[in-house]
Amino acid sequence: MRLVSKHMKKTDGVESYFNGKAKTYDNYFGLLYFQVHNQITWRHIEPYLPTDPNALILDACGGTGRWSIHMARKGCRVVLLDISEKMLEKAEKRIKRESLQNRIIIKREDITKTSYPDETFDMILCELALLFFENPDTLLKELNRVLKRGGRLIISAPNRYVQSLVALPEKPNLSDMENALDILLRKKYGTMPENTKVKIYTWTPDEFRKMLERNGFSVEKIVGKATTMPLRISKELFTKKGGSKSLYNKILHFELALCEKPDALALADDLQAIARKPLG
Ligand SMILES: C[S@@+](CC[C@H](N)C(=O)[O-])C[C@H]1O[C@@H](n2cnc3c(N)ncnc32)[C@H](O)[C@@H]1O
Description:
With 280 residues, this protein is α/β, with parallel strands linked by helices. The chain has helices at 13-25, 32-43, 66-73, 85-97, 136-146, 160-166, 174-184, 205-214, 235-238, 245-259; strands at residues 2-4, 56-60, 77-82, 104-108, 121-126, 147-158, 190-192, 195-200, 218-225, 270-276. It has one domain (2-276): Rossmann fold (3-Layer(aba) Sandwich).
């Protein structure tokens, strides 16, 4: 089923960026980096899926539907919500191919002002999207509003510590050092590689936790995703497709040994929080 909201705002930079990216977007997930990243993501989604067959999950900024499809395959009912028409067209095709139309509703809306009543959803996933929000509180407030009390929010954010370290080459000069320092001190934002108008916002693990708390969530845990990459493994290797299965298994083993260690969080490229909207 396809729904378009009356509350749509005008096309902005992020929406047109993803309209342009939609065709090739899913190709990223064949890279070694994302194969490992996806494993850790799913291992920290699957155990939290609601068991009630009537429960409803919001895949907030769900893009081409990769996580909606995973969740629907497990029997869940999902609303896949995104602002990009082209990303959703891609999703619609995949959902039809998998005959999951009866479990996934596609909704084109701005996530900061959805048309859903308070406390509609039993769980919310927001993966790889918070980074595009200059004012993340508007997004988190809306997610908190539409989540049922006791329901979980699973959300990821890029780690500024790692983003600043990655900006440093092995032999930095003065301007490399200034650039990395500006990222660390938040004087400068990252941008998407193909479109420097699309800004990327980052948080330290502590800022991420506090931001969730001030928007009404209690954080159960934060896991680190991709700790060996990109800090320790060369870009040539982690942007490779396919590659050696045994090397992949060892990298995954290493990542899994680190991802739940709170004192290793500062080293992780991405942070994934599992948070709850308190009951009372
Ligand atoms: C990097 S993609 C992530 C897609 C999906 N969650 C995944 O893990 O593959 C970010 C998505 O956020 C969507 N998005 C950005 N701003 C949005 C907004 N204000 N409302 C709804 N969707 C938005 C984009 O259209 C894009 O599909």
